[in-house]
Write a structure and sequence with these properties.
Layout: E1 12-13, E2 18-19, H1 27-41, E3 45-48, H2 49-63, H3 71-83, H4 88-97, H5 114-130, H6 137-149, H7 154-167, E4 179-182
Parallel strand pairs: 3-4
Antiparallel strand pairs: 1-2
Length: 184
């Protein structure tokens, strides 16, 4: 097994150690192995500023679907805005005004690729659960429509919904963290 691989038996490997379930390992070795495993699953993607704006706006529209914006949603949206390269003040204003802004067209976003749409759906589901024990029906309907409009099959959406339901908005890494915004 080469460095940073997972064997078919579930053993995690780094150059320094092999993790065997039930074995004794230092905390730093375990953290390193988890990070290696997580990094292998990451899918970085370059997007332009317009696509980043569409992503942010779409998530803003989502958080207003239940007609309230919670402190947890505000913090998550600030984090998302920062990851997309938007100024803090811009994000704060957009979040503060989203419930009352009648000039924003409330249509699900369309993305240039299924991969970007899939990332959006996963982050949208994270946001939908961050302030609820279960997803608000308006938020779910809107995310399903977004998935459908972007060519994401209903069974894939349902699978991601179940993953989000099991984590209840408790994720350290969001899909937006893997987006690289190109300013050209």
């Amino acid at each position: 097994m080469s460095p940073a691989e997972v064997s078919p038996t579930g053993l995690y490997s780094t150059r320094e150690a092999v993790y065997e379930p039930g074995g004794r390992h230092s905390h730093s070795t375990l953290v390193q192995m988890i990070n290696v495993h997580e990094d292998r699953k990451r899918s970085f993607m370059t997007i332009n500023v317009l696509e980043a704006s569409n992503y942010f706006k779409g998530l803003l529209l989502l958080i207003r679907k239940d007609r309230k914006v919670t402190p947890a949603e505000i913090e998550a949206m600030k984090r998302i805005g920062k990851a997309l390269g938007f100024e803090r003040r811009f994000c704060e204003n957009a979040i503060a005004e989203i419930l009352e802004n009648a000039f924003i067209v409330d249509e699900p976003p369309h993305f240039p690729s299924r991969e970007l749409a899939y990332k959006f759906i996963k982050d949208g589901l994270f946001l939908a659960f961050i302030d609820h024990r279960d997803i608000d029906p308006h938020e779910e309907r809107w995310l399903r429509l977004t998935a459908e409009n972007n060519g994401i099959e209903p069974d894939i959406f349902s699978r991601e919904l179940e993953v989000a339901r099991s984590t209840k908005g408790d994720r350290e890494r969001l899909e937006v963290d893997d987006l690289i915004v190109e300013h050209s």
